[in-house]
Amino acid sequence: MPANEELVKKRMRKEGGAPAKQSGNSAAKKSTKAESKPTKAAAPKAAPVAAAAPQLKKKEKQAPVVNNKRGVMLFAGTYHSVLAGLVYRETVEGEHKILLKFSVKNHIGCVNSVATRGKYIASAGSDERIFLFNHKDSFQQISDLGTLAPASEVRVMKFPDQHHLVCGCEDGSIGVYKTRTWDPISVLPVHEKAVLDMAIHPSGLIAVSIGADRMVALLDMERGKLITKLKVPKVVPHAVMFNPEASHFAVALPFDIYFYSTLEAKQVSAAKVTPQPPNEIHSVIFLPDDSGCLIGCENATFRFLPKAQYALDAPADKSVPVPTAEFQAVDVELLPVPSEAQLASGEKKKHGVHQTRIKCMQHCNGILFSSDSDGVVCAWHVEKSSTSESGLKLKQLCGIRCGGRITNLTATPR
């Protein structure tokens, strides 16, 4: 018995000692964990991040913040086979800039027309080819989609929507392509000579084209049929456009503008610019508020034709001739962006002020864009003026000299 008791006591001592050792080890582990926790919480690397935060804030203050609502992408075709992409930006600080985004030289010869809609960009040249492009992330990346080979040279292109591309050709036909596969859907013979310009109704259901045969054609785009054709008197027209309400469209000649009713498909009025020799019309655009037409002329000046000077109501009696308004070519007041010191130092060309004929005009996001035959592109803000004889004032926001003869210009919100 005594021997058994001693064995029991020894076992109890051993069992009592083992937990003591375990508790000591666990305590040691807990202490090491407890010691390791402060090292993680201390995070000595956090100090540099906190120190770098003020530097990041300084950089954000220095970087110009772009107002995306006023951003516009411009595409210009030139006589020198180049398709140029320009971006207009307005910063929150109120600075205006036009910058060259990219330039592509794919065509052999003149670039006749440039069109864009949605993610697609198309350029047509005198080499009888159409080059297609795709853009991503607000024109940050431009990718090549390939080429199209129409039956003849394409003179003008329009995107009525993101699913179709309409082309006016040298042989007088108008073709339609489907953008998803770029297969031709239809080809409609319209004019006896080349198609010079084309305008698409905002609904996309009606198109108006003018040709070298001095004809104005109205087309049903939904059915692919010709509605009617009207003869233009005197000389060959060179431009056609819808007014903001699309109730009427205008056809521009070298010294005349004819106005037609879209619904009735007939001429309702006309306007004649005087004096004629220095004021040849090269571009016409309706102002967004439909207050009149802005005209770009041969002598690098703008003319304004108020809506009150031409009537858009056709006479009830067909025997009564169409009313014609003869308006004096009054210069629109221009406020150029260069200061007097910059003009005196010879920086007029650098900032881009028109000195030759105004070839193209586009209105986008409340900004008027114009280009001349010297490659100068300007951005303007249109304002009413009580002191100007024309009643209109153009305030130049910025300008850029592209260095090539621009043939056409198109604009789209960025």
Description:
By secondary structure, the chain is of the alpha+beta class. It has helices at 2-42, 46-62, 340-344, 348-351; strands at residues 72-78, 83-90, 96-104, 111-117, 120-125, 130-136, 141-148, 154-161, 164-169, 173-178, 183-189, 195-200, 206-211, 215-220, 225-231, 239-242, 248-252, 256-261, 266-274, 281-286, 292-297, 302-306, 324-328, 333-335, 358-364, 367-372, 376-384, 392-401, 406-413. Strands 16-17-18-19-23 form a 5-stranded mixed β-sheet, with no helix packed on it. β27 and β28 (392-401) form a beta hairpin. It is globular and about 140 Å long.
SSE class: alpha+beta
Number of helices: 4
Q: State the strand order across the main sheet.
A: 16-17-18-19-23
What fraction, in percent, of the residue positions are helical?
A: 10-25%
Task: Estimate the mean pLDDT confidence.
Answer: 79
Q: What is the overall shape?
A: globular
Q: How is the biggest beta sheet arranged? A: 5 strands, mixed
Low-confidence stretches: 17-68, 338-346
CA-CA gap between termini: 101 Å
In what range is the share of β-strand residues? Answer: over 45%
Q: What is the radius of gyration?
A: 35 Å
Number of strands: 29
Spell out the blueprint of helices and strands.
Layout: H1 2-42, H2 46-62, E1 72-78, E2 83-90, E3 96-104, E4 111-117, E5 120-125, E6 130-136, E7 141-148, E8 154-161, E9 164-169, E10 173-178, E11 183-189, E12 195-200, E13 206-211, E14 215-220, E15 225-231, E16 239-242, E17 248-252, E18 256-261, E19 266-274, E20 281-286, E21 292-297, E22 302-306, E23 324-328, E24 333-335, H3 340-344, H4 348-351, E25 358-364, E26 367-372, E27 376-384, E28 392-401, E29 406-413
Parallel strand pairs: 19-23, 24-28
Antiparallel strand pairs: 1-2, 1-29, 2-3, 4-5, 5-6, 6-7, 8-9, 9-10, 10-11, 12-13, 13-14, 14-15, 16-17, 17-18, 18-19, 20-21, 21-22, 25-26, 26-27, 27-28
